Amino acid sequence: MARLILFNKPYGVLSQFTDRVTETARQTLSAFIDVPTIYPAGRLDRDSEGLLLLCDDGKLQARIADPHFKLPKTYWVQIEGEPEETSLDRLRDGVRLKDGLTRPALVKRIPAPDIWPRDPPIRVRKSVPDNWLELTIREGKNRQVRRMTAAVGHPTLRLVRWSIGDWTVQGLAPGQWAENSLP
Question: Which stretches of the chain are DSSP H helices?
Fold first, then answer.
């Protein structure tokens, strides 16, 4: 039976077990998880936080990470500014990026979630409000959510992946992991 680990990746941690850049001392998964033969199923950027799934089964990794399977990934996104409905509609319709049109996203405004503080905290500008969105995509272009929000005029300040399919980061503090059964 395949092993599946749910990990709440902290801000600043690479989604890999070793750092290929030796000149810097960047944190990797090995600082948190010491389980043999477990590998990330997909990626989460260094400056993003939240759910990262790891497993020991190649077919399961593909099912989780490959956009062909269209597994929904839900993010809580703190953005700069007050989005108008037209901006949200652009996200819902798909956004033209340099590498093509994104698939339509599910998006809605949400109140600021009651989650862990980020270390370091985001930059705050008194003259520019910030808001939170819940955004669900079914693909995984490089830095896609950040590029989508920027394309509609609302740069991402903080990005937390809350869930992948039925798996969620709920109940896990940053840096914690738990083994989970398959749905």
Answer: 58-65, 85-93, 144-151
Q: Which of 181, 3, 33 is nearest to 16 (CA)?
A: 33
130 catalytic? Reply is no
Per-residue tens of pLDDT for the chain, all 183 residues: 788 999 999 999 999 998 877 667 789 999 999 998 999 998 899 999 999 999 998 888 888 887 777 789 999 999 999 999 999 999 999 999 999 999 999 999 999 999 999 988 888 888 888 999 999 999 888 899 999 999 999 999 999 999 999 999 999 999 999 998 665
Is domain 72-164 annotated with CATH 3.30.70.1560?
yes
- Residue 149 exposed, middle or buried by CB count within 10 Å (0-12, 13-18, 19+): buried
Beta bridge partners of 178: 6
| Separation CA 106–CA 108 (nearest Å) | 7
Say which CATH architecture domain 1-69+168-183 belongs to: 2-Layer Sandwich (3.30)
- Tell me the C-alpha to C-alpha distance, in Å, between residue 32 and each of 8, 21, 22, 72: 10, 19, 19, 26
Q: Indicate which residue of 19, 45, 47, 56 is catalytic.
A: 45
